[in-house]
Amino acid sequence: MQRRTLLGAAAGTACALPRIAAGAAGAPRAAYPEKPIRIVVPFPPGGATDAWCRLVTGPMAEMLGQPFVVESRSGAASMIGTEAVARAAPDGYTLLFTISSLVQSPVVFRRAPYDAERDFAPIGQLGTTSLVLACNRDVPGRDLAGFVAAAKGRNYSFGSYSPASTSHVFGQVFSDVAGLGMTHVGYRGEAPELLDLIGGRLHCALVSMTSAKAYLLDGTLRPLACLGRQRLPSLPDVPTFIELGYPQDFAWSGFVGMLAPAGTPPPIVARLAEAFRATTERAEVRRALAEQDFIAQWLPPEKMAAEIRRARQSWAELVERTGIKAE
């Protein structure tokens, strides 16, 4: 706004100034974005979340005219990076790209330095994803029943890419339901977890298709069952836990999306959401997601907010029922 011009205008326009100022107070500068946008992934680089973030921020940068700087800030079951964004200035230049751990970690740890609903302004959901229970190829058992039979009475271990994550909680639920008494081994990201799983230092883990697909298809890892209600396209012969008679809790699939700090001006959120939505419709993006057995399901800000509320409640009920918690 050109202040000198306005102050020098005719007196008849003076009464319009409060209205103009009020309208501009919550609006973004017309040039937004006028500098690079930092987007935090609360997991180590090289994992599925990092890959999804880079897949979508490339096209978004083209549309918005500014690059995205992807920053990995892992630790405390994703809560360190998530808190950093919650406390950042709500100006559209610090964003969060995350998964269901946004609501999961606070529930499992019984504490959190942020509120998943109050401290963020959702930009949109990219889609949902399921995990596959996989074991090292040298572990006995050709299917889930065989694995369970081999594991009983032995000190088997299961890994997770982060404490309090889907892979941790459902690994524990599987161990409990099957009566295996497996030992949990937590990692900081999927990359080190996969190294140990492939190397035989870990018996099994719930892994993402984004990170583990090649190993699952070439026989390095053996897929046993998948979360969700539908089989994965790349693994048509691998049943879901539900098909095998496990509880309905195993129908869980997690969300993947982008958020800004609460208080970010609505016009900025809207511009980011539109670029995000347009990106999800690009053929090359949808093709890349499909290759990872990712279910692309765009949700605008208000619907993603509702999904966060639903997931938070569902996760709280599951954790309460199973008694799982992390320290």
TrEMBL record:
<dbReference type="InterPro" id="IPR042100">
    <property type="entry name" value="Bug_dom1"/>
</dbReference>
<keyword id="KW-0732">Signal</keyword>
<dbReference type="InterPro" id="IPR005064">
    <property type="entry name" value="BUG"/>
</dbReference>
<dbReference type="Pfam" id="PF03401">
    <property type="entry name" value="TctC"/>
</dbReference>
<protein>
    <submittedName>
        <fullName>ABC transporter substrate-binding protein</fullName>
    </submittedName>
</protein>
<comment type="similarity">
    <text>Belongs to the UPF0065 (bug) family.</text>
</comment>
<feature type="signal peptide">
    <location>
        <begin position="1"/>
        <end position="21"/>
    </location>
</feature>
